[in-house]
């Protein structure tokens, strides 16, 4: 309880994901160092039930794998890079848009990335393209969705980086995207597809949120202008009487009163 109170509420979700991913990787790493047949039993009993196969039939029989594949990682470096992006962009997203948008981005990135992985690898195989048939593991599609969200929602937001200084979100996002192309473009087409789908999902959510916030600000500015104009008209009425208003000003006063009455009725 004391530890929970010390942690920033906005960061609790980041710590929870971090501990979950690290725990799974440590258990998997330790079990694989044990003598046979424990590693084989672990793989068949646990790992095979969590990773996402490129086969639609396997997904049909294990639908939970559309999310659980994010718990597994190929290596410690794979996990470390995902945690770096999780904290770098996840913390910004939580501060900018809150935990609901974070959950939509993170889980949505996993589902969309996994679904795209199964769909497009199946289509490519049907078209005669030779693929390695590697399963999908890792939280990369989820964390890359956080990157995409920030690029869409706040591309000019600055990120302080040690030894480099401050870079804008879109610059860091472009660098991450280029690294993905270099890392996955050569041999792991399925992994690249999952990453691209996660980026597009997050970017779409970010653009939607940005447009929504812009509309809200515009409505607030318009409301403030209408309220200021209403007060001017009331002051004119108090000073010179209702007859001093022009036809246009009377219409504005009546329209504002009607809007106020309508909003009161709804409340």
From TrEMBL:
Domain of life: Bacteria
GO molecular function, one term: serine-type endopeptidase activity
Residue span, Peptidase S54 rhomboid domain: 63-210
Record family assignment: Belongs to the peptidase S54 family.
Residues annotated as signal peptide: none
Record has Transmembrane helix as a keyword: yes
UniProt KW Transmembrane keyword: yes
GO cellular component, one term: membrane
Membrane topology per record: Multi-pass membrane protein
Keyword set, alphabetical order: Hydrolase, Membrane, Transmembrane, Transmembrane helix
Name the UniProt record assigns to this protein: Rhomboid family protein
Protein's cellular compartments: Membrane
Species for this entry: Porphyromonas asaccharolytica (strain ATCC 25260 / DSM 20707 / BCRC 10618 / CCUG 7834 / JCM 6326 / LMG 13178 / VPI 4198 / B440) (Bacteroides asaccharolyticus)
Transmembrane region(s): 12-31, 66-90, 102-123, 129-151, 163-183, 189-208
């Amino acid at each position: 309880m004391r530890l929970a109170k010390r942690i920033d509420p906005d960061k609790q979700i980041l710590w929870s994901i971090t501990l979950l991913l690290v725990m799974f990787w440590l258990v998997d790493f330790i079990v694989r160092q044990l003598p046979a047949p424990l590693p084989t039993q672990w793989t068949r009993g646990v790992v095979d039930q969590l990773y996402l196969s490129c086969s639609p039939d396997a997904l049909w029989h294990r639908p939970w794998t559309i999310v659980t594949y994010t718990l597994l990682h190929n290596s410690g470096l794979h996990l470390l890079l995902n945690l770096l992006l999780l904290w770098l962009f996840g913390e910004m997203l939580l501060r900018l848009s809150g935990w609901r948008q974070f959950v939509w981005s993170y889980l949505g990135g996993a589902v969309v990335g996994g679904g795209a992985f199964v769909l497009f690898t199946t289509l490519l195989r049907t078209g005669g393209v030779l693929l390695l048939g590697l399963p999908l593991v890792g939280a990369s599609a989820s964390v890359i969705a956080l990157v995409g969200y920030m690029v869409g929602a706040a591309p000019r937001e600055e990120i302080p980086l040690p030894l480099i200084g401050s870079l804008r979100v879109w610059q860091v996002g472009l660098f991450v995207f280029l690294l993905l192309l270099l890392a996955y473009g050569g041999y792991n087409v399925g992994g690249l597809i999952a990453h691209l789908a996660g980026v597009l999902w997050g970017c779409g959510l970010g653009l939607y949120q940005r447009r929504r916030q812009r509309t809200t600000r515009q409505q607030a500015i318009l409301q403030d202008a209408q309220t200021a104009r209403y007060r001017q008209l009331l002051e004119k009425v108090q000073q010179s009487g209702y007859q001093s208003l022009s036809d246009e000003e009377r219409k504005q006063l009546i329209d504002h009163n009607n809007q106020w009455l309508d909003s009161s009725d709804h409340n």
